[in-house]
Amino acid sequence: MLKPGFIDLSHHNTIPESLAPAKQSGIQGVIHKATEGSSYVDDKLDNRYYLARDAGMLWGVYHFARPGDMKQQVDHFLRTTAEYVDENSLYALDWEDAGVLLDEVVEFMERLERVVETSPVLYSGHVVKEALGGEGDPRLSKYRLWVCQYANAPVLPPGWSKYWGWQYTDQGSCPGINAPVDLNAFDGSIEQLASTWSGREIEPAPIPPNTPLTVTILVPPGVQVTVINQRS
Description:
Layout: E1 5-9, H1 20-24, E2 29-36, E3 40-41, H2 45-55, E4 58-64, H3 70-81, E5 90-95, H4 102-116, E6 121-124, H5 126-132, H6 138-141, E7 144-148, E8 165-174, E9 177-186, H7 190-196
Parallel strand pairs: 1-2, 2-4, 4-5, 5-6, 6-7, 7-8
Antiparallel strand pairs: 1-9, 2-3, 8-9
């Protein structure tokens, strides 16, 4: 039996009245589309934010990546979502466009993480598997994986031993929302979902021992600087 989970929504979904029936049915959180590329904004973001808040649900936002300037896309995402997020919100990147390169996804995730100071979630399915080509990439696998795979059980991309979230259908039903609805399982309990939702509690990956540290110091001519490395 699938564990308590969440739904993801966009302007494609229709909510006649409220998200309260969804919450009452056991759905704990909503991750809503906010932006796409460098200019598109989902026009339902504002309304769904208030519906989720009124229903007492966990809230998150995602960006749909397109080929292009990743800095512009991060900035666009953050500008658009600024009034709809707080320290308890989740940030996610939707990687479905095969034209977006692996290095560009890494750039987006790392830039976003630096700005919001929390660990974002990576959503993807066959695209990430094809991009990795059978070999894990620690730059990506340090992030939580929200895997998309419509099967009895997901086959994870190389680099991950478990999923954070699993979108197991795009043809589901959910009280209060017109079908079809994307449904997602969470690998843990309701309490764990709530306590780890925002990603703020996730510690950054430690620097491996004996990794050289590079420091650039600009000083006026004639000034001598002595650096003592006490790092073990």
